[in-house]
Each structure stands twice: as structure tokens, then as C-alpha cells.
Amino acid sequence: MAVDYLVIVVYLAGMLAMGWWGMRRARSKSEFLVAGRRLGPAMYSGTMAAIVLGGASTIGGVGLGYQYGLSGAWMVFTIGLGLLALSVFFSARIARLKVYTVSEMLDLRYGGRAGVISGVVMWAYTLMLAVTSTIAYATIFDVLFDMNRTLAIVLGGSIVVAYSTLGGMWSITLTDMVQFVVKTIGVLLLLLPIAVVKAGGFSEMKDRLPTEYFDPLGIGGETIFTYVLIYTFGMLIGQDIWQRVFTARSDTTAKWGGTVAGTYCLAYALAGAVIGTAAKVLYPKLGSPDDAFATIVKEELPVGVRGLVLAAALAAVMSTSSGALIACATVANNDIWSRLRGIGKAPAENAENADDHDEVKGNRVFILIMGLAVICTAIAIDNVVEALTVAYNLLVGGLLVPILGGLVWKRGTVHGALASVVAGGLAVVVLMATYGILANEPVYYGLLASLAAYLVVSFATPATDAAVLAAWRERLAGRAPEPESELASEPAATPR
């Protein structure tokens, strides 16, 4: 294992080095939180694919393939569909808004006062998303070093917190690009063909497994529908995803770069399911489907290649964890703390007037604080699936309707948005307590409650002020002036 250890250590050291480099580049709020809004198509596509394909997509995707066969691809497939829908229908408009958070978008659309409650819900989602990724470190480090779970979480979490705190989005962008390359080589180009060959090829796999393993709908129609509801719609509104859209240098980059990333996700989904199916042939009696990835890597891959594939799994976890962490810190600082301190009604209206140095320093502090909170929560929580379900139930049940409603329906009002967030969020929490965290009912009925509250209250209250809607349309069309501090921090070179 010495060679494998060396590969992992070099990889981790490289992540920290990129954090140090990013620290020297991130000198303004725009640079620190959204990489100066200057990413070109190649870097944008790679980093977007990296953040959405995390530990759940890699380890969990292979586990679903082990349990259900090719239909186990549906979870990751619906993530790809969501990213495609976001990129084709909404990303160009989102990029033109020039904001930092989803709650700032709600303030612009509804005329302020919508951001605090929505910020709390979004903060809870991003926190739990970061926690689920951090828990996954334990699985990987256990395979690598037979390490204690708590120590593994602290070690992996500390590395992510370190490079995220140092360089913000620039560090995360650079590390995500490396992680995208490592994942592509490790999972798609190495593990996939080796697993199929070791299992005897597709003909042998079909002979040794039940026919339902090769049924595209074998996982069940209700499960697929739930995946679409949670993951496809979740991709449309998550702060972690929107913050990456904000990094695009143009709306064209956001649209077509995201389309490429979404297509990549579809291929990654199928690869994970095939690897899991091959693992079922090779190891039919594993204690847990989630052990399939680690087992096939540890037992079937040669020295060196094994280290690279484990680095790929680590890359998948780190990319999602770092993206969720900076999203969580951005929401906590800009949407919650700033408002509680009374700095302003809407951060979008005054954030650019603050001193850039102080803004960067403040956001670094929040990343560090949120990072410590994520590590402590990950140590206390043992179930990745439950934590991820809580995150997406809150996101979809509480925020899907007011966000998409604001983008497509001009009659929606601030009171309708607030009622929608409260009704949907409370319904989700109560129903999770009643039916159980993993039940489908909380997100189904929570979404219906959110939609009903939005429509009824919006129709019952005065329409949004015409001046607010006019300013909103100007921002959506990209005709609003660039924030002065972003123009001032714009360097001559543009990354491609």
C-alpha cells in the first residue's frame, strides 16, 4: 500500500498548496466568493461537474448499482437532469443578476424582506450537505489507513476547511478542477473498464445476475419520481449550485458550460451503476451496498491505480464538501448575520459599498466557523442518507416554489414568498417527525403546502411594486450596471 499512500499524500498536499495560491489571488469579495465572475467554459464545466458529483454520487451511486443494477443510475441521473434544466432554462438569467446568494435574488425580485427566513432554510440545507460529504471521509480513510472514524472526519474536514478558508472560491475552483480530472481518470477511465473485465464482461454479468438487474426501471417508479422531485428540482435552487453559476464570466458560459457538465453527470451515473453491478458479480454477499466501491477498489485494482481511484473518491467528497461549506458560510454571513446586525435590509443593495479587505476577512472567519460546525456535526451524526434527505427535503419543500415562482410568475408577492417558505418548511419538519426522515410524504406534502400558500397569499395581497419589478427585469436582462468594486477588481487576464 506504500505507493497508494504516496499518491494520496501528494494529492492532499496539492490541495493545500492550491489553497495557499488562492489566498494570494482572492483580494476582494467578488474574487473570494465567486472567483471574480471570470470562469471560462472549460473551467466552469469541470468545476460544476465536480461539485454536483460528490461522495453520494460516487460511493452511493456504486452502492445503488450493487443493489439494483443498471437502474441504480437513476439517483445520479436525476442530478444530471437537474443541472441540464438549470443550465438551459435558468442559468443565463441567474448569472446576469450579479448577486452572491439565492436570498439576495429573492430580495431583488420581491422588494426585500424575503431574505432572512429563506436564508435560514438555505443555511440549514448547505450545512447538512457539507456534513454528509464530511461523513464520507470516514469511509475512504478507513479503507486507506484503517483509521478511527472521528479522526478521519477531523483530518479530511480540516484539509477542506484549510484550503477553503485561505483562498475562498478561487482555491475551491482550482482544487475542483483537479478533482474533476482525477475523478474522470480514476472512475471512468480506470475503475469502470477494470471492473467490467474482472466480472467477465457484460455477457457474464447477465448470466450471473437476475434479469431485473438490467431493467432500466427496476428500482421502481415511485423511487424515480422521488429522485426527480428531490434531486432534479434541488439542482435548480441550491445555493451551492447557484454560487457556481455566479462564477461564469458570461451568461453564455453559464448556459453551455453547465450543459456540458450535466451531460457528463449522465455518463457518470451510468458508470457508477455498471461498476456496482460488476461488484455484485464479484462479491455477492457484502454486508452493505455502500461497501461495494471500497471493496472492488481494494481487492481488484493494482497498486498505484488503487491509490488513484481512492484519490478520485476523495476528490468527489472534497469537491462537494468545499462547495457546500463556502455556500453555507456565504449564506450565514450575508443573509443572516449581516441582517441581524442591522447592516441593511438587503445585502444586495449595500454589500458592494463595504471595504473589500474587511469583506474578505469576514467571509474567511465565517468559513472557519462553519467548517468547525460541520466537523462537529459530522462526528455526532452517523447516517449519511438521513442527513442528505433532511437537507434536500428542507430545500425543495421550503424554497423551490418561491424561487421558481419569482423567476417565472410576476404576480408572486413578498408575502406569498414568505408564507410559502414557512408553510413548506414547517410541513416538511412536522411530516419528517411523523412519517420518518426517509419517508416520501414530507417532501410531497411539504411542496404542496408551499405551493398552496404561495398562490393563495400572493393573490390575496397587493401585487409587487412596479418599480421593483422594473428593476428586477433590468437585472435579469443584464442591463443593470456592474457593481463598482467588481469592476475595480477585474484583472486584465481572463482564465479559460
TrEMBL record:
It is a multi-pass membrane protein. Keywords: Cell membrane, Membrane, Transmembrane, Transmembrane helix, Transport. It is found in: Membrane. GO terms for cellular component: plasma membrane. The chain crosses the membrane at residues 6-23, 44-66, 72-95, 116-140, 152-173, 180-197, 217-238, 259-283, 303-332, 365-385, 391-409, 416-438, 444-472. GO terms for molecular function: transmembrane transporter activity. The keyword Methyltransferase does not apply. One of its GO terms (biological process) is carboxylic acid transport. InterPro entries: Na/Glc_symporter_sf, Na/solute_symporter, Na/solute_symporter_CS, Sodium:Solute_Symporter. The keyword Membrane applies. PANTHER family: SODIUM-SOLUTE SYMPORTER-RELATED (PTHR48086:SF7), SODIUM/PROLINE SYMPORTER-RELATED (PTHR48086). Belongs to the sodium:solute symporter (SSF) (TC 2.A.21) family. This is SSS family solute:Na+ symporter. The lineage of its organism: Bacteria, Bacillati, Actinomycetota, Actinomycetes, Kitasatosporales.
